[in-house]
Amino acid sequence: MSRFFGIGPAAARDAATAGAPVAIIDVGSNSVRMVVYRGHGRMPAVLFNEKTMCALGLGVAISGRLDPDASEMALKTLKRFALLAREMGCTDVSAVATAAVRQAADGPRFIERVRERTGLRLEIISGEQEAEYSALGVLSGIPSADGVAGIWAAARWSWRGSATAACSSGCRSPWARS
């Protein structure tokens, strides 16, 4: 008999699909992505996974501002994602913004526009958090992974060392800015 964490296959399948779906939205320098999951534990079931290439960070390193056309595309994508999450019955929608919004002079205004148009509350996460979440994503698929997880965003590197140490020994490049 096949076993999954000490329980039979039917119980494992039921555990993976239990509960209401949750959505995670990542507003990155290059793309805006939403993944909807159901279930708990290391490998929840993926119900929906979509990404739009918006290039929000285009020019942030040069002008210090978000690209206007990319911002509009990101806003339209976020409005669509908010509607989809609602229609899918998501009980929790977590939305994070990373390097481009964090570093842009008009990042706070973009966050206001997102809230006004979509109702979503974007949380700006630090480069360290971004790298840690990436490492945790690796660990969810490969629990024994040991190495470095890196993020290249808005022309900067952030990384985490020793994934098996629960990302506790993180570091960032000396030229990276929060």
UniProtKB/TrEMBL annotation:
<dbReference type="InterPro" id="IPR003695">
    <property type="entry name" value="Ppx_GppA_N"/>
</dbReference>
<protein>
    <recommendedName>
        <fullName>Ppx/GppA phosphatase N-terminal domain-containing protein</fullName>
    </recommendedName>
</protein>
<dbReference type="InterPro" id="IPR050273">
    <property type="entry name" value="GppA/Ppx_hydrolase"/>
</dbReference>
<dbReference type="GO" id="GO:0016462">
    <property type="term" value="F:pyrophosphatase activity"/>
</dbReference>
<dbReference type="InterPro" id="IPR043129">
    <property type="entry name" value="ATPase_NBD"/>
</dbReference>
<feature type="domain" description="Ppx/GppA phosphatase N-terminal">
    <location>
        <begin position="36"/>
        <end position="145"/>
    </location>
</feature>
<dbReference type="Pfam" id="PF02541">
    <property type="entry name" value="Ppx-GppA"/>
</dbReference>
